[in-house]
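Lines hold sequence, tokenised fold; shown next:
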Amino acid sequence: MSTISPRHISDADVELAALINSTASLGVTLDARAATQLLMLLDELSRWNKIYNLTAIGERHDMIVRHLLDSLAVWPLLEGSRVIDVGTGAGFPGLPLAIADPHRQFTLLDSNGKKVRFVAHVARTLDLGNVQTVQARAETHTPPLFYDTVVTRAFAPLPELLDKVVGLCGPNTLVLAMKGRRQSTEREELPAQWRIETDRDLLIPGLARSRHVTAMRRTT
């Protein structure tokens, strides 16, 4: 009597399944194609990082947790169809968000030329038609239309951040600032024309350190 051997499960299969499960706990539903693209993003980042030093995070598990999962944790808060990631660096959180949400348009902005070139390379390689790159400082970028959501990750103290992105924001634009530990002085020094709508913890699977996101909108 013949027996059927179980299907061989590769390390890549395990990694893919773990990523899909982890993102689900963040409220993000990934199909296999999107999850594969996210892992391909890390493959490209590792390859480029050997030459261009784009990130100090080099271990694969840490890259998944601190780049992919951390980026996607803010996805449930995004509003509208036009999103800009200010100070995107090597594409975080913008690239993971664009992969997970192909129906929104993402502009990824940074002043560092080599990092913008990497982001553009990944967008071409993964055929991300919803990603546009801009090499500029936030305060000099003049979009034809205001963005619906501005997202930043460890960009600047809140008062400085809002001063730099005000030109990107209309009256209803949501600004999401992803940060580590809370700094009370930042909230006390918030410009009068801005209000904090919510400030919530981000629970990243596999990450012990404190993370939170502050959501802000203009009052006038």
Notes: Helices lie at 11-24, 32-52, 60-72, 94-100, 113-125, 158-165, 184-188. Residues 1-6 have pLDDT under 50 and may be disordered. The two ends are 78 Å apart (CA to CA).
